[in-house]
Design brief:
heterodimer; A: 94 residues; alpha+beta; Ubiquitin-like (UB roll); five-stranded mixed β-sheet; B: 284 residues; alpha/beta; Rossmann fold; eight-stranded mixed β-sheet; two-stranded antiparallel ribbon; 33% helix; ThiF_NAD_FAD-bd (chain B)
């Protein structure tokens, strides 16, 4: 069962789309779905991950609208069927 | 309760506020007694300044070090064609005075920095962040957390906006064991993106009406906060997509290891931070 990422702001531009479906599903982790996303849209890699492959601190990861980094098990959070994932960065325009 | 000092002209001007139970003459007096600092007289600042002035916020500070350019006029609606080349704070102050002579408008033609942030911010009840860069946004967040000053946050990118509100009322919440600690901007985004990694409006463009929507929401939250009415956008980040016409709200929580608002913060002064980089703690 594929999982859809929703991307906000400049992340969508880098990925070329606001919505990207990846081959990860129930039983996989959010981190695995993120790896699939970056593999599929490599222009995201430097913006989302550090040189060490860690998630950049200003990138938030949501699962069904809940921040997995704050309220769940981070990138180890296990996906359930039908989950919707999202990545959002800060924006600064005024 | 504030002393009621509304004169006949004010009762007329603010009559649509005064007749509402949620505001009434007492609420209008609160607005007239309040002071707000708007940082940035651009896309977000324009509608915020206009509506705060129209609402009768009695003292309105405006900070900006730019002059009006013709390319601003597609969205920065507090300025007009004749204002091109003038300091934005002068143009915005003239607009406020023409709209509502009740308002004491205070233009500050300067860039807000760690050196002057206290002098500027500490004279006001609420700060509305309408700036256009991460350095100013992190500086305002950190100073407002450290001083317990309410901060209305809004930011835009092409067709999208983000809005939230930080009361920064931590000591009163700490006394209430059932209350969740309120988050700050760094709880959501601990550090800014590396400089140069996120393009700005001049590079990417921006839908002209977008900051109108976002700036109006910021002003709405400030008015509600001053009135003490309704539920402000605290603990929630509103994400607006003008292209899809969607509003999504995400819960945002205090980060127990936040570098500035946690119980044992790394940042105890804005002097600790290198704001022109990723807004991290200085190495030295």
């Amino acid at each position: 069962m594929p999982t859809e990422w929703k991307l906000f702001a400049d992340l969508a531009e880098r990925a070329g789309d606001k919505h990207v479906t990846v081959d990860a599903g129930a039983g996989d982790t959010v981190g695995a779905a993120l790896t699939e996303l970056v593999d599929d849209r490599p222009d995201l890699e430097g913006r989302v991950l550090t040189d060490d492959g860690e998630l950049r601190s200003q990138i938030n990861v949501l699962r069904n609208g809940t921040n997995v980094l704050v309220e769940e098990e981070g990138l180890e959070t296990e996906l359930e069927e039908g989950d919707e994932l999202a990545l959002f960065p800060p924006v600064s325009g005024g | 309760m504030s002393d009621l000092r509304l004169d006949a002209t004010q009762l007329d001007r603010y009559s649509r506020h005064v007749i509402m139970d949620e505001i009434g003459p007492e609420g209008q007096q609160r607005l007239l007694d309040a002071s707000v600092l708007v940082v940035g007289a651009g896309g977000l600042g324009s509608p915020a300044i206009q509506y705060l002035a129209a609402a009768g916020v009695g003292r309105l500070g405006i900070v900006d070090d730019d002059v009006v350019e013709r390319s601003n006029l597609q969205r920065q609606i507090v300025h007009g064609d004749d204002d091109v080349g003038r300091p934005k704070v002068e143009s915005a102050a003239d607009y406020v005075t023409a709209l509502n002579p009740d308002i004491d408008v205070e233009p500050h033609e300067t860039r807000i920095t760690a050196a002057n942030v206290a002098d500027l911010v500490d004279e006001y009840d609420v700060v509305l962040d309408a700036s256009d860069n991460f350095a100013t946004r992190y500086l305002l967040n950190d100073h407002c957390v450290l001083t317990g000053t309410a901060l209305s946050h809004g930011a835009i990118y092409r067709f999208e906006g983000q809005v939230t509100f930080f009361t920064n009322e931590r000591s009163s919440k700490a006394a209430d064991e059932d209350a969740d600690a309120p988050p700050c901007y760094r709880c959501i985004f601990p550090e800014a993106p590396e400089p140069g990694t996120v393009p700005d409006c001049a590079t990417t463009g921006v839908l002209g009406v977008l900051p109108g929507t976002v700036g109006c929401i910021q002003a709405t939250e400030v008015v509600k906060y001053i009135l003490g009415k309704g539920e402000v956008l605290e603990g929630r980040l509103l994400m607006y997509d003008a292209m899809d016409m969607t509003f999504e709200t995400v819960d945002v929580l205090a980060n127990p290891s936040c570098p500035v608002c946690s119980d044992d913060p790394e940042i105890e002064s804005v002097e600790d931070v290198a704001y022109e980089g990723s807004c991290q703690i200085s190495a030295d």
